[in-house]
Specification:
alpha+beta; seven-stranded mixed beta sheet; two-stranded antiparallel ribbon; binds 3,4-dihydroxyphenylalanine
Amino acid sequence: MIPQLSNYDEASLEAAFATLSDEVRQQAAELKTTEAQENFRLNWLGRKQGRLKLVSDAWLKSAPAEARKPLGMRFNQLKQQIEQALEAPAAAASSATVQGIDITLPGTVRQPGIAHPLISAMHEVVRVFHQLGFSTNLGPQVESDFYNFEALNFPPNHPARDTQDTLQIAGQQVRPSRDRLLMRTHTSPVQIRTMIAQEPPIRIVIPGKVHRNDAADATHSPIFHQIEGLCVGPDITFSDLKGTLDHAMKSLFGSAVKTRFFPSFFPFTEPSADVQISCIFCGGSGCRKCKHSGWIELLGCGMVDPAVFAAVTAERRRVNPDDDAYDPAKIAGFAFGMGVERIAMMLHGVSDIGHFYSGDMRFLEQFA
Ligand code: DAH
C-alpha cells in the first residue's frame, strides 16, 4: 500500500520514490508472460485502484505548494519507468539482473570455405613438381599470336593451328599478325616468356586458364585449365623427361601406376610423345573407364624443338645482340602439358566436366 508521507522535504521524497522505483524494477524483471504484464499494468496504472492513482491521491493532493514541483517530477519519472517496463519487459529485466545471456543456446556455426576441386588438383600437381625442384610461373590469358603460336613453331596458316581455334580480340587487322591478341589456347606461351626473361637452367611449372573454340560436352569445355612444365639445361635428355613424368604420375595416382610413352606430334617439341598411365580404376586389366585397353591417356610432352630455342634467341638478341644462352647446339630441354580437369576427374571419379563449373553446392560440398 502507499505509506503516508510525513514530510515533503527533498530527502523524504527521494526515499519514498526510491522504494517505489525499486519495487517497479523488481516486478519488471518478472514480466515473462502477457498475463504477468497485464497484472503489472493494472497494479500500477489501473485507473481506480492503480498504485500511481493512490500515490497521486495520498501525496500530490495534500502537498504544500513548494513541494508540488519536485514531487510532480518524481511522479512522472516513476510513471515513465513503469511504461518503459511494459514496452520492453526484457530490457528492463536485463538492466535489473546481470545480463540476459542464455549459455544453453547453440553457438553460431562458422562455415569456412574450401578450395575448389580444380584449384586443389592444380595445387597437388604443382606440389609434386615443387618437390622435384621446379618453381611456378604465370602468364596472361590474353596473349599475342607470337607467344601463343609463332614462337612455338606454329607458322601463320599452319594446319596445326586448326586444333586450337580460339577467340580473337576484335579490331586488330591494322597490326602485324604476330602482335594480334587472342585468348590463349594453352599454357605453352609462358615457356617462351620465361626463356626470354630468364637464363638456363630452368625448371618451372605453369598452371593457368586456357580457351578454345570447343563445344561443351561431358569431357570438353571452351574454358579449361592446364599445367605446363619446362626444364632446360645443358644435358637434359629424353630419359630425364621419362623419369620426371613417371615419378610425378606415381606421386599423384599411387606408386603402382605405370607409364608408357607413344610417339605423337606437337610443333614445339621433337620428338613428341603422348603419355598414358595404367588405368587407376581397374589396375590395367581393362574396364569401361579405359575403354578396355588398360591405359588412360593423360598428357603431351617432348624435347624442346630447336626452332623454339631459335625463336627465343632471336627475341633475346633484340636486347643483347650477342646472346647465345639458348643456342640449340649447347642447350636442351623437355616440356610437358596436362589438363587439370582431366586429372581432377580421375582423382575424384567425376564423370561430367560441367559439374566443376555449375556452382552446385551439393557437388562442391563433397570436397569439404
Ligand atoms: N600445349 C599442348 C596442348 O595444349 C600440350 C603440350 C604438349 C604442352 C606437349 C607441352 C608439350 O609443353 O611438350 O595441346
